[in-house]
Design goal:
Elements (H helix, E strand, L loop, with lengths): L1 H9 L3 E5 L5 H14 L17 H4 L6 E7 L2 E9 L8 E9 L8 H15 L4 E6 L4 H9 L3 E2 L14 E6 L4
Parallel strand pairs: 4-5
Antiparallel strand pairs: 1-2, 2-3, 3-4, 5-7, 6-7
Length: 174
């Protein structure tokens, strides 16, 4: 019995919740540390985007939500949906999906993406677009598993010219 208790005590318990104002500094730090880790801390990415430091304000826009994942009460990452300017009216962008190193490879990224798909559907979007970089190959593989397909060029006006992979997911097919 003691052995079973020990096993459950070591399990990581994720909690997905909406972003709070007091989360800004921690999530910005996670985003920038991940980009630095993968040598993707370059101009034209969220690394240099000033909105990265105030995501709470950014995601107060209509039809947007940013989700935080906590593991055992500590922020491990997050992701959101945003109605990026210039996208078709039925399309939003999956943005700022980043996880701490110790939270990767455990299904938490997929849980965040599914949460974001739910937000997108709630807001009436039928498609989800994203921009990424080959340096983030673990994330790219996750996007492929979640049904994103590659595009030949960017959609919308994100301002992230440092991203050179573009993908789209149709939410109307399963």
């Amino acid at each position: 019995m003691q052995r079973v208790y020990h096993y459950f005590a070591l399990m990581q318990r994720p909690n997905i919740r909406l972003l709070k104002n007091e989360d800004n500094a921690e999530i910005a730090s996670i985003i920038r540390s991940v980009l630095t880790e993968f040598k993707a801390d370059k101009p034209g990415t969220v690394f240099y985007d000033p909105t990265t430091d105030d995501l709470f304000n950014l995601f107060s826009a209509p039809s947007s939500e940013y989700w935080i994942i906590e593991i055992d009460g500590t922020i491990a990452g997050g992701s959101g949906v945003y109605p990026t300017q210039g996208l078709p009216g039925n399309c939003c962008e999956l943005v700022k999906l980043y996880l701490r190193k110790d939270a990767r490879g455990k299904g938490f990224g997929k849980q965040l993406i599914e949460q974001c798909f739910g937000s997108a559907r709630k807001f009436g979007f039928e498609q989800v677009y994203l921009e990424t970089m080959p340096e983030l190959k673990m994330a790219v593989g996750l996007y492929e598993q979640c049904g994103f397909r590659y595009l030949d060029g960017p959609l919308g006006n994100s301002g992230h010219f440092g991203c050179d992979l573009w993908m789209l997911k149709d939410l109307t097919t399963f």
